[in-house]
C-alpha cells in the first residue's frame, strides 16, 4: 500500500480538525443563494427558477477558498460544521460579518426577501384512521409537513466530465427548441453557474500565485490552468476529471445540502482518464494515489454519507458476467486505508469478483476499523432491480446513495429514506383486534378477531398478515400524499440537468421527470416480529406454557412478571442463530410484504421498492411500540434493519450469516441491510482468509448488504468513561459511520449491546 505523503498528511490533519475553511467561508452559500433568488427578474420567478438563480449566484459570487497545499480545490460552504448559519439572527449576523459581507448585504438577506417557495400542508388531508397510524408511529414520512424530497442522489457526473457545462447548455438548447418554458430557463441558469465556478477559482489561484514560493506558485498556476478548462469544458486527463467532478458535486450540494448527495461509481467513471494517463506516462500510480487522497480529504465530514462505490460486474453481449474491478478500484481502497478517517465507501462483489479484491476490502475494514468499506452483492441486487422494471444494462450500473439505499446513477429519483412502516405493529394490532396496546384501546386498524379465540397458531399468523396488508396500504397512501406535494414544493433544477429523462421531457426531477422514478418503502421491525411470532408459536401454541390470556396481560402491562418476560426472551428461538423457526418466519414476513408491495404498486400505478432498512428510526419506532412477545419492553429500541435484535445472535458469525441469507433478498431492490459486529482479531492475518471464505459463501446463498463493525465493547465502554482519550474513535452506526463521542448515549448503548462475534 502507498503511504500518505507529507502534503496529504497535513491536509488530512486540517480536515479532521476542521481548520481549512473555518468561519471565513461557512455562510457564503447562504448569502449568495438568497442574493440570486432576490435578484431574479419578477417575470422569471417560479420555484424552479428561484433555486437555479440561487445556485448560479453562489457559483458566480462566493469567495473562492484554496487551502495551502491543495491540489483539488473548491469548498461547498456547508452547514455549521464549517461555520455556517445557526438560525439565530444575532449570531448569524456575526457569521456574515466574519465572511466579509457588508451591513447592507446582511440587511438585505433578512429584510429584502420575497416569499420564495410554496409549502403544501400534508397531514391535514389524512383520514382519521391514517392520522391515527401516523400518531402511533406505525407508518410515517420523514419529510415533515411539506415534502422535502431532498439530497439522496447520485447524478450523472460522467456527463459533466464528457461534455462540460458548455456542452450541457447546448444540450438544453436542443431540447428547448427555442421555447421559453421556465424549466428550460432554470436549466440554462444552472449551466451558467457551472461554467463560472471554475473561472472564479482560476482567477483566485493566479492571485495567490503572485505571493507564493516557487514550488507552490507552479502548483497554483497548474490549478488555474485546470480550472480555466473545467468544468466549463470536457475533462482531458485524470486530474481535470477529478477537479471537474468535485466542482459538479459542489453545485449539487448547494442545491439541497451535503447529506447523502453522493458520487457514484468513481472507479468506473474515472478509469478511462486514469488508464490513458498511466499508459502515456503523463501520470504515475503514486501521483494518482495522491490526487485520490486529496479528493477523499475534500469529502471528509464527521458524519459522512457522501458515498462512492467501487467494484461491481457487468454482462457481456453473450450473457457472461465479468468483473469490473480495475486498478483504480484498488487504489481507492488504498487511499481509504491510508486516510484512516470516516469516508463512506461501498464495494460491489459477486461470484465473478476476484477473491484477492474481496480479501483486500475486508482487510481495509479491519485496519481502518470504522466500518468502511461495506458490501453489496451484485448476484442479489441486480436481479432485484430487474424484477422492479430496471433495464438489465442499467441494473448492472447500480450503486449505493448514502447509507445503503440504491439507484441507477444519473437516471433515478429514488425518493429514498422517507416513508417507513413498523411491521412489529402488525402483531400488536393483531393481538389487540385492531386496537393499540401502546395507546390502550385506541382503534387504529381493522378488526382481525379476538385473539382469545385463536385456536391455532395459523389463526394468529393470518391476523398478523392481514394487519401487514393494512400497514403497507396505509404507508403507500402517506408516501403518495407527500410525493404529490414535492412536485410543487421542491424543484431540483440541478438534479434535473444531470438526471436522464428530465431535460428531454422538460420535467423536473421532483415532478417525476427521471427515467426511473420510484419510492423506497422502509420496513422496520422484521426481526422483532419474527421473534415475537416464533415465541408465541413455541410458548403459547406448541408447548402451551402460557395461555393467550396470560400473554395479553403481560404485554398490556409491560411484563410485570420478569420471569415471564425472560421466558419469552430466552426459551423461544431467535432470528440470527440459524434456527429454522424464526428464520423461516422472518423470510415469510419479508416475502409476503414484498409481494404485497408489488401488488399495491400495480394498483396505484407507481413503483414502490421494498427496503428493510431502519436508519436511526429503530429508536423512534421502538419508543412508540408496546411490549412485544419477543421479550422486548414497551418503548425499547427495535432491531436495526434486518439485523437480529441486539444481543440475540449467540451462535457465531456463520450462523448469523446463514440466517440473513435465508431472507428473500432478490425481492428487495432497496437493499436488505445488516450490520455485523466482529471482534478485530477475526480480521488479522491468521483469520482473514477464513473470514473471506465465509463471507463469499454467504454471498452465494443470498447475503445482500452487510456492514462490519470492528470496535470491541471494552473500547466503547472506555470511550463512554473517558471520551477525551477516544476523540477519533468511529463506529458503524446505522448505514453510516460516525465518531463515537458524537452519538447520543442511547445509540452508544445500542451499539455496545450488539453481539460482538469472536468466532466463526
Low-confidence stretches: 20-24, 144-149
Name the structural class. Answer: alpha/beta
If strands are numbered along the chain, what order do they take across the biggest sheet?
Answer: 4-7-8-17-16
Regarding quaternary structure, what we see is single chain
* Cα radius of gyration in angstroms: 26 Å
Strand element count: 19
Beta-strand residue percentage: 5-15%
- Average per-residue pLDDT, rounded, comes to 91
Q: Rough shape?
A: globular
The major pleated sheet works out as: 5 strands, mixed
What attributes characterize this protein structure?
760 residues, four-stranded mixed beta sheet, single chain, globular, alpha/beta, five-stranded mixed beta sheet
Structure, described:
The structure is a single chain. The protein is α/β, with parallel strands linked by helices and 760 residues long. The protein has a domain at 419-677. Strands 4-7-8-17-16 form a five-stranded mixed beta sheet. A four-stranded mixed beta sheet has the order 1-12-14-15. Helix 14 (355-368) links the parallel strand 7 and strand 8. Helix 10 (238-256) runs parallel beside helix 12, helix 18 (457-489) crosses helix 24 (580-604) and helix 21 crosses helix 24 (580-604). The longest helix has 33 residues, at 457-489. The chain starts with 5 loop residues before the first helix and ends in a 7-residue tail after the last helix. Residues 20-24 and 144-149 have low confidence and may be disordered.
